[in-house]
Amino acid sequence: MQLISLPASSAQFISEWLFGKKTIPFFTRLKNGIPSVLISSFGLSLLLKTNDLSVAVFAAVVSIASKYIIRINGRHIFNPSALGIVLSIWLTGNAWVSPGQWGSNAVLFFGVLCLGFIVTTRVQKLDTSLAFLGTFAGLVFARQIIYLDWPMDHFIQSVSTGSLLIFSFFMITDPKTIPGHKTVRIVWCAAIAVVAFYLSAFKFMNGAPIFVLVLAQPLVPLLDSFFKANKFEWVPSKACTPAEKKFLDTVYSRSFM
Q1: Is the dihedral angle over the CA atoms 11, 17, 21, 25 positive or is it negative?
Q2: What phi, psi does 75 have (nearest 5°)?
Q3: How far apart are CA 132 and CA 129, in angstroms?
Q4: Are 64 and 12 in contact (CB under 8 A)?
Q5: How far is CA 206 from CA 53, 99, 118, 201, 212, in A?
Q6: pLDDT-based confidence at residue 132 (cuts at 50, 70, 90)
Q7: Of 18, 87, 98, 19, nearest to 58 (Cα)?
Q8: pLDDT value of residue 135
Q9: pLDDT score of 28 more than 80
């Protein structure tokens, strides 16, 4: 994590200096961008694997710099972590996606953590996660259980990998890089799931959802121009209600038992 965070933070500093909004004080912009840097570093550290230090640095710099350079209508086009992973794999040939090195217990933890992330940040894009994961899991079930008559263990293993859960709850839900219209967003996510399933099941592509996401994201500005919706804006976090706090306390206590 530290290996990724340092070059990512450096890229943020330089990008804010060169491309940031000049109407906002520099150090204010820098402070506001820290959560994004940490989230991108988190995604890269968990999903991208390489034996070359320069590749890790390249992925971190590309992830952060792309947010400032590749923009349309004031919004970045690509999910930073996804673009960093894809370009590192395609351009260096010395990186790969790790599908699930954490084991089954950690998979359960990540699933609960992802749900808690959506509740606490109130991004309200759970429909995006369910559209992708539901379509992908449904296709895998139809092929493995119904068509091939494989044991249920194969299906559970296929849809419970850490990389798939992180992608479903953290990566594809980035509100700045998905369609704003709810119906279009659900169809868009389902289409990504269909293509990713085909590449995974029949072309044996590791990390297929990430590649498909990066290829699909340039379509988002076009879809938003045809299907109008309220523009997403981050708002300050509100204090948790007693019910939400009780839920989070329960999640955390059970996760670390």
Answers
A1: positive
A2: -125, 140
A3: 5
A4: yes
A5: 22, 7, 26, 10, 11
A6: very high
A7: 87
A8: 97
A9: no
Q: Tokens 């890089």 — which residue?
A: 177
Measure Cα distances from 168 to 22, 100, 241, 247 in Å. Answer: 35, 14, 26, 22
Query: pTM for the full model?
Result: 0.81
Dihedral sign for Cα 154, 160, 162, 165, please: positive
- Measured CA to CA, the distance from residue 109 to residue 133 in angstroms comes to 17
Distance, in Å, from the CA atom of 117 to the CA atom of 119, rounded to the nearest integer, reads 6
pLDDT one-digit tens code per residue, 10-27: 776 677 666 666 667 767
Q: What are phi and psi of 72, to 5 degrees?
A: -135, 130
The region of weakest confidence among 3-7, 186-190, 212-216 is: 3-7
